């Protein structure tokens, strides 16, 4: 089924100038970018987005990292977009990620893993709504 998923290129991906490379991988895989914005997250925004991780040992470092510089946030649309994006990204720990995935190719550690992708339909809906209003999402139309 056609799905939407939320993708974030994290501060390490932006600072390594990987926006174009990562967008190219999405587009090559048939994932359409239907919304996008660059943001400098506030601590409050990062805490809200990652609320489910509050209290975990990596939480404070995660919030500091995600607010250390701009992120690129996008909505991807396509067939099985949630799983497709996770396949393109590779596993959370880049040491375990399959060759040719974004994290295997560019990430240095689990806490410097270049990108985020929603892990399930309910999370995708919540995460998309966290960053985008309905009118900011622009599905494809035929153009003559
Ligand atoms: P992400 O998909 O953005 O969701 C939570 C993030 O926490 C995860 O990617 C990792 O970058 C980060 N993180 C840091 N340490 C850990 C850890 N030990 N286990 C899981 N996630 C971690």
Automatic annotation (TrEMBL):
Gene Ontology BP terms: CTP biosynthetic process; GTP biosynthetic process; UTP biosynthetic process
Positions annotated to bind ATP: 10, 58, 86, 92, 103, 113
KW Metal-binding (keyword) present: yes
Obligatory cofactor(s): Mg(2+)
Keyword Kinase: yes
Compartment annotation: Cytoplasm
Enzyme Commission number(s): 2.7.4.6
Family annotation (Pfam families): NDK (PF00334)
Key words of the record: ATP-binding, Cytoplasm, Kinase, Magnesium, Metal-binding, Nucleotide metabolism, Nucleotide-binding, Phosphoprotein, Transferase
GO CC entries: cytoplasm
Residues at the active site: 116 (pros-phosphohistidine intermediate)
UniProt domain Nucleoside diphosphate kinase-like: residue ranges: 2-139
Family: Belongs to the NDK family.
Matches recorded under HAMAP family: NDP_kinase (MF_00451)
The protein, known as: Nucleoside diphosphate kinase
């Amino acid at each position: 089924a056609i799905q939407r998923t939320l993708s974030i290129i994290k501060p390490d991906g932006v600072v390594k100038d990987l926006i174009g490379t990562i967008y190219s991988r999405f587009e090559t895989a048939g994932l359409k970018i239907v919304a996008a914005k660059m943001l400098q997250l506030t601590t409050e925004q990062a805490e809200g987005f990652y609320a489910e991780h509050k209290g975990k040992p990596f939480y404070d470092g995660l919030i500091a990292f995600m607010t250390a510089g701009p992120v690129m946030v996008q909505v991807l649309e396509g067939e099985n977009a949630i799983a497709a994006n996770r396949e393109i990204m590779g596993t959370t720990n880049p040491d375990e990620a399959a060759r040719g995935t974004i994290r295997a190719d560019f990430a240095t550690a689990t806490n410097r893993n270049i990108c985020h992708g929603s892990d399930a339909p309910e999370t995708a809906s919540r995460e998309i709504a966290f960053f985008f209003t309905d009118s900011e999402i622009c599905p494809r139309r035929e153009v003559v």
